[in-house]
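lol so apparently i was supposed to do this last week
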Amino acid sequence: MDKSSLEAHVEPEKVRQWIAEIGSDTSAAVPILQAIQGEYGYLPREAMDLVVANTEINASQLYGVATFYAQFRLNPVGRHLIKICHGTACHVQGADRLNTSLRHILGIDDPERDTAINGSYTMENVACIGCCSLAPVMVVDGETFPNLKGADAQRALRNHARVHNEILPGQQSDEEARA
Ligand code: FES
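anyway here it is w/ FE2/S2 (inorganic) cluster bound
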């Protein structure tokens, strides 16, 4: 599955409808982007182009808003979201290593990407989530996984994937290499 197959199918009439309801001057940028992301889970390029073509908001203003606010995503999201805490305590306890081992098991080689190629999981770095004594921590679909040292994160994700019938692309290639 390539990246393009994760892209949403954008219906232009829907985007035009949101613009008609919300407005077309620069103050409408945030609510329009929220409407788009609420529908598609991220901000598809096609929808962004439609906003630029049908409002007074130019591309640099629109992308400026989309990249300024952490709530907005420019890339498709997977079926499950992994939040990796990068607050001070988690950082000191090895949050970077957590990212490395999760990227490996998810088969995400491209540093520009944060979603597994099969659309299963998306990784997101977040600020302190308020349970520093359990560092380092990740949260998968709202479930907190504490004290993730060494191979713990991969083990936790393997269990999560098994329960949710997901395939981990990196794990697959490890198994193929061993076969
Ligand atoms: S720094 Fe990670 S929970 Fe606080």
